Amino acid sequence: MGATPGLLYVTMEPRQGLSLDQFHDWYNNEHGPTRLRLPHIFPNGLRYRATDGLRPTFLADYDVTDVEHLETPTYTDLRENRTPREADTIGQVVVNRRFFDFVAAQQRPDFVPAEQLTDAEAEGLVLVNVEVSLKDDVDTVEAEKAIVDWYVEEHIPMLSKVPGWLRSRVFRTPSHIEDATTNPVNIVTLHEYAKTNGLDGPEHKASMDTPRRTEVFTNYIAAKSRRTYELFYVFGPAPRELAALAARPAAAAFTTADGKITTTSAPAPAIDAYVTTADGLNIPYRLEGNPSPTAPTVAFSNSLLTDLSMWDPLVAILKARRPDLRLLRYDTRGRGDVPSPPAPATLDVLADDVAALLAALRIDRLHALMGVSMGGATTLKFALKYPARVARFVACDFNVASSEANTAAWKGRIAIAEGEAGMARLAPATVGRWFHEVSMRERGDVVAWMTAIVARNHVRGFRYGCQALWWYDLRPEMKACQVEGLLVVGDGDGKGALVRAMEGFKAGIGPEGVELRVVKDAGHLPMCEAPEGFWEAVQGFL
Questions:
Q1: How many other CB atoms are there within 10 angstroms of residue 355's CB atom?
Q2: Same domain assignment for residues 83 and 25
Q3: What does pTM read for this prediction?
Q4: Is 105 in the same domain as 171?
Q5: Which of 1, 165, 372, 424 could form a cystine bridge with 396, CB 3.0-4.6 A?
Q6: Which residues, in sequence order, are bridge partners of residue 6?
Q7: Is 302 helix (H, G, I), strand (E, B) or coil?
């Protein structure tokens, strides 16, 4: 038998005493994303708020690729092995969980599902739920067919003439995975409309006043219920709810059992979690800063051998001086393990990783993307490949093309990393090469901090990650760059060689070239070595 698509339809009403902040933090940061991490079961998840003054107030629905999946341990274990926070919160919510089998659908030719819209486009879309029950004395099969035929042949075609109509879907409950002997058959229709629509207008009223409708209701339908909702949240597979988190007490901090997701509420909200790429690699990220979901977002791409913590000094400055910004950091591929089967990284793959991160967090366009070293090359590649996804970029301490000498150097460093001393040997040599002589002489704490970061890098991740820098050349495409950019470099990077190199290619980025700014007394990582000087270089551009 083929798959039976359907819907998981859950209504919820928080009990008195449960704060909405706790309810939304749990649902948006834990419950929903956990399900969206199972795309073979749940391709989407939407949250609605009632607009008719009735209860339950909240509705969540999830399309299901095959309702049979809802009987497998992959799904049932989520419900049976709840975290303590989920158990505590859901115990304070009146929940009605239902499974629907899909029957039929009609939609506008230009219909776009909500999960494919931006949040600004999706939020406020209208959902009308109509549910009819069958009379006790009718033949169930005959009644069900008559009702569905009326919907498909007359009612929905008439609804399609209502201004703002988007889509109508017909479902049946109970689902075939449930016990039909104890659950009467109901037909459920979900009608989706634009924010501005013609509900209760002449076209809508006409659809509810026809001879065939009267016949169907008279002969087969015992009762009808109708609810109206507005969409207010679209799930992705990665938690991003900072607003509700910001309103929670410090004690509300949460960590999953596997340690892969942590949320911190006070003194400032932050989410540490991960996204999974198309090739199965988990990429950690940290989201913090302005908790508003509409705040402009700046993302940061770290250098090879470092992790997202390398941005700590700059992030501290941004939090203090640009509280309007939401800040997103992630560990560039190569920091941790590699996908299976292992594959060398490329700049295309690294740019796609950024796109996957933004998609999982439903960030349609960055205010800025900033990267350094391999992250700088990634940043420029992303601007070239996804110009609609970023308004401006800052690319630091990188080159636009590789060389045979650099490739040979990377192969030598791999040999050191895979040798007996491993990263412990490579780390101090790397930091000594990166940092300015002033840093090496006067910033011992920074040197020790960065050396420890490099020493913790995954050896196999480094082996496959550094190959993104072996054979690449951005020069043929960078003249076509459509995104406003800025280049930054430490004055001592490569003892000044990289300053000269970046001076040489800055005019070739975009139709008019880009500006290069030099940070004094800094080497390869100026945002780490001289954060105030780096901030002075970029603040106006941001």
A1: 14
A2: yes
A3: 0.96
A4: yes
A5: 372
A6: 64, 101
A7: coil
- H helix runs in 38-83, sequence order: 73-80
The answer to whether 236 touches 44, Cβ cutoff 8 Å, is no
Q: At what angle do helices 312-321 and 531-538 cross, to 10 degrees?
A: 50
**Average model confidence (pLDDT) for the chain?**
97
- Tell how strand 282-289 and strand 297-301 pair up: unpaired
Of the three residues 234, 260, 283, the one that is the final residue of a domain is 234
**Residue 107: helix, strand or coil by DSSP?**
strand
Tens of pLDDT, residues 302-347: 999 999 999 999 999 999 999 999 999 999 999 998 998 999 999 9
Pick from 355, 293, 369, 304: which is nearest to 332 by CA?
A: 304
User: What residues form DSSP beta bridges with 167?
Assistant: 107, 192
Cα 467 to Cα 461: distance, rounded to the nearest angstrom: 10
Give the residues across from 62 on adjacent strands: 8
- Answer whether the bond into residue 73 is a cis peptide, omega within 30°: no
Dist CA 236 CA 34 (whole Å): 9
389 with 358: CB under 8 angstroms? Answer: yes
Intra-chain end-to-end CA distance of the chain, in Å:
56
How many angstroms separate the Cα of 85 from the Cα of each of 90, 248, 401?
8, 13, 50
Query: Phi and psi for 386 in degrees, rounded to 5?
Result: -130, 60
Q: How many domains does the chain have?
A: 2
Task: Please indicate, yes or no, whether residues 217 and 277 belong to a single structural domain of this protein.
Answer: no
Query: Helix %, strand %, coil % for the chain, to 5?
Result: 40, 25, 35
- The parent domain of residue 319 ranges over 269-538
Is 256 among the domain residues? no
In a domain, 170, yes or no: yes
Residue located via tokens 């009608």: 191
Q: Please tell me whether residue 2 adopts helix, strand or coil conformation.
A: coil
The CATH number that applies at residue 520 is 3.40.50.1820
Quote the DSSP letter at residue 366: B
pLDDT at 181: 77
Question: Is residue 229, in this structure, part of any structural domain at all?
Answer: yes
Domain containing residue 75: CATH number: 3.30.70.100
For residues 55 and 163, state if they share a domain: yes
pLDDT at res. 169:
98
Question: What is 125-171 written as a DSSP string?
Answer: -EEEEEEEEE-TTS-HHHHHHHHHHHIIIIIHHHHTTSTTEEEEEEE
Residue 426 lies in a domain: yes
Coil, strand or helix at 210: coil
Q: Both 221 and 348 in a single domain?
A: no
CA 298, CA 487: separation in Å to the nearest integer? 16
